[in-house]
């Protein structure tokens, strides 16, 4: 089995940067919206959830990019041949 092509690191980082900045803005909003005297208790869970959501999106995007790189490198003529059946 040939090694799977790697994803383009620079393209991945560039593609995720906008989503990261948007998420960090939402983190700032969550901290600012917490009640006075309850900043940690009022913002910890929303911030945790935002990072968890971003972590999932970042991982999925990386997996998809690596899969796309592998599909782009795949040569249909290099594998097994599938017999075509005539149309009825």
Question: Could you walk me through the main structural features you see in this protein, from its secondary elements to its overall organization?
Answer:
With 88 residues, the protein is mostly helical. It has a domain at 18-72. The protein contains 2 helices and no strands. The protein has helices spanning 9-33, 39-73. Helix 1 runs antiparallel to helix 2 (39-73). The longest helix is centred in the middle third of the chain and has 35 residues, at 39-73. It is rod-shaped. The relative contact order is 0.16. The model has no long low-confidence stretch (mean pLDDT 88).
Q: Give the N-to-C terminal Cα separation.
A: 37 Å
What is the residue-averaged pLDDT? 88
Class computed from helices, strands and strand pairing: mainly alpha
* Share of residues in helices: 55-70%
Element-level helix/strand string: HH
Radius of gyration: 22 Å
* Number of separate helices: 2
How can the largest sheet be summarized?
none
Unreliable stretches (pLDDT < 50, length at least 5) are: none
- β-strand amount: under 5%
Walk me through the topology.
Blueprint: H1 9-33, H2 39-73
In short:
With 88 residues, the protein is an all-alpha fold. It is built from two helices and no strands. The protein has a domain at 18-72.
Task: List the main descriptive attributes of the protein structure presented here.
88 residues; mainly alpha
């Amino acid at each position: 089995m040939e090694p799977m092509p790697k994803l383009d690191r620079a393209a991945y980082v560039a593609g995720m940067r906008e989503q990261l900045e948007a998420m960090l803005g939402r983190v700032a909003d969550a901290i600012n919206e917490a009640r006075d005297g309850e900043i940690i208790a009022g913002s910890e869970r929303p911030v945790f959830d935002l990072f968890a959501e971003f972590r999932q999106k970042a991982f999925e995007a990386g997996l998809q990019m690596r899969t796309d790189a592998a599909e782009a490198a795949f040569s249909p003529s290099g594998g097994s041949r599938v017999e075509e059946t005539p149309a009825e």
